[in-house]
Amino acid sequence: MQNTLKSAAVFEGRGLHSGAPVRMVVRPASADYGIWFKRTDVPARDAMIAALWDQVVPSRLCTLIRNDAGVEVSTIEHVMAALAGCAVHNAIIEIDGPEVPILDGSAVPFVQGFLARGLIEQRAPVRAIRILKTVEVREGEAVARLSPADMLEIDFRIQFDEAAIGVQEKHLNLSNGAFVRELCDSRTFCRQSDVDAMRANGLALGGTLDNAVVFEGDRVLSPGGLRHADEPVRHKMLDAMGDLYLAGGPILGRYTGIRAGHALTNRLLRALFADPSAWRMMECNGQTLGKLPGMGVHRRDLPATA
User: Fold this and answer.
1) For 72-107, how does the pLDDT look when each residue is reduced to its tens digit (9 = 90+)?
2) Which of 15, 113, 147, 148 could bridge 9 with an S-S bond, Cβ 3.0-4.6 Å?
3) Which is more confident, 197 or 185?
4) Domain ranges in the chain?
5) CATH topology assigned to domain 2-122
6) Higher pLDDT, 59 or 104
7) Which among 78, 235, 262, 298 is annotated as catalytic?
8) pLDDT of 39 over the 70 cut
């Protein structure tokens, strides 16, 4: 069965790049509605944006969607990851500005809000996208790949010159609440040099040491240090989870990311859907449902940092 929230969840904060205050309300939606954003600060006829791969426009620092009227919402990846990781299939996200609030830089505030409201089952089957053959895209040394698997798995590898990050690799099977337990509290991260460059260009105006992990050489500048020794690669997996949910349903397959980012993952989805022989939409039976991210997740699955 599909799921939606029992009641609305409200989130207030600032946009990471604009620094502007924003209020976002995630509301229940009917079966087969999917995930939609609604800009409440623009005329109603232009307000709706589908959270789908073909609405994504190029953006180096985040995932940004835009409708035909030019209305957009950016930095959607963390809330999308939380929706996927909590098995919320239908929701309307009302937002009074162009950027999702960054909150603590992870997905855990969204997960907390969704689990506190609870989910309600809807009388409609869950449709998942089964990967039938390997699809891959590359850009320089970066690789993003989808290959067949019985459930969603994510492999990720990152490499940075900063000694505090270095080379990190992780593999996770995302069934049975693994996203909530293992990934949801991992924060966005950057280098101090990146912060300086972005602010010089009018970006990251809402960024602080409380909503991002900032590295400089072999030092972690953020108070309290890391939540996980490998928090950077976990956050990249969190981002991939959110970007993959723009496929329009859960994916049954293995995602491999090597130095991949938002743009490359979207290119991967475009390559996937351009090849009808590479995927199949299927109705999930009871056995398959149990393998999906978020099915059966509970508030006790939240990590100790939440």
Assistant:
1) 999 999 999 999 999 999 999 999 999 999 999 999
2) 113
3) 185
4) 2-122, 127-298
5) Ribosomal Protein S5; domain 2 (3.30.230)
6) 104
7) 262
8) yes
Q: Which two tokens stand for residue 247?
A: 């496929």
Condensed to tens digits (0 to 9), the pLDDT of residues 92-101 reads 999 999 999 9
- Determine whether 78 is an active site residue: no
**How far is the CA of 258 from the CAs of 75, 181, 262, in angstroms?**
21, 23, 12
